[in-house]
Amino acid sequence: MKPAAREAARLLSGAGLAAALLLPTAVTAHTAPRATLPAADGKKGQELPAMPSALDADAACTAPSRERAKKQDWSRQRLDLDRTHGHGVGAGVTVALVDTGVAPDADGLEGRVTADGTAAEDCVGHGTFLAGLIAGTDGRLSGVAPGARILALRGTDTRGRADSALVATAVREATEAGADVIAVTVALPRRDRELTRAVAEARRAGAVVVAAATPDPPARGGTDTIPPRVYWPAGEPGVLSVADMLPGGLRPERALPTTGIDLAAPGAGVVSGGPRGDGHYLGAGASVAAAYAAGAAAVVRAAHPDDSPEAVAHRLTATAYPADIPQLDAYAAVTTVLGGPDAPPAGERAAERVAVRDTSDADAATERATLLTLLGSALVLAVLWAAFTLPRARARGWRPARAGDGATTKD
């Protein structure tokens, strides 16, 4: 290689080194949000089938899973269920679950599910999955309230599509059955008069009504073009509206934007069982978070049987981890003694209903800005390197510098 070519190669190599020192940071900044997606065990993840919330019109029923989770997932660790169960398991409490139905003989739910008619047929599997989060008895993967009973009610058709008339009927049936907690884990885009009345009747009858703040995100397509809106019955007065969160406390990137949320709970990379077989699935969405909150409400009702529905909801929000959206703390909800000098007055919410900050666009813009800034810095360093070195190389006649040569000395 000629001296001039070698010198040019040295210059490019130096500039490339400067850029290389910065580019890994730029790439990390760009890909970090993807790395925050939770794994089933909070560390390396588990390869398990996904549990859908709905099926295509021509799809077969969800197949049995052939795999079982090897570890307790992050969500149960976050809710501190091992310690929570030392103070209560929801014994004697009935939780009505309004979803796709529940298989009465599902693994971990045997003998504790009441389901009549189509509510006992769960082709989708989603309702059975959620029932396991509320009251399952699957060892380290037990639900929040493994001593509670499940009243299965259908709020969807057989493919998992929510229907306001079905939801209203289900809430009324739950009220007539004397359910202590009613979990509506489907969400409707429009308010329905009959559903509004059914929810009001349930609350007057003494039920704690918990609802998913949003529908689960669609399986196909993005959610960027969907404007923020209130979903129902989560928007009804007195209903505990629950949204899903990642291990870091943020909402998932594809979560539907909404307002009026009372509580956030784990809602991604969550493990539970299904209606057929003893295998496990991974589930996500506000429906999962609402199921966890309903289980916590069941444990609180069992531990504090004289508390009103308003007091139970207050306890769940007052003991939640403080954040933009208060984060469910099942252990604290059961063990905390309320009414101290710093506690909010009884009957008041611990936190105002807050709007979800939809940060996906801002996060993407920040990533792009960070990447461009770091690339620009690398380019500036390359230019400064060249500005410093080229005159000296030219002064040497493009010959390599030798030890002892001055910066501007010719041979």
Automatic annotation (TrEMBL):
Signal peptide from the UniProt entry: 1-29
Stored Gene3D superfamilies: Peptidase S8/S53 domain
Peptidase S8/S53 domain segment(s): 90-324
PROSITE patterns linked to this entry: SUBTILASE, SUBTILASE_ASP
Keywords recorded for this protein, A-Z: Hydrolase, Membrane, Protease, Serine protease, Signal, Transmembrane, Transmembrane helix
Top-rank taxon, per record: Bacteria
Chain ranges passing through the membrane: 369-390
Active site, per annotation: D99, H126, S287
UniProt record similarity statement: Belongs to the peptidase S8 family.
Protein name, UniProt field: S8 family serine peptidase
Organism field: Streptomyces nigra
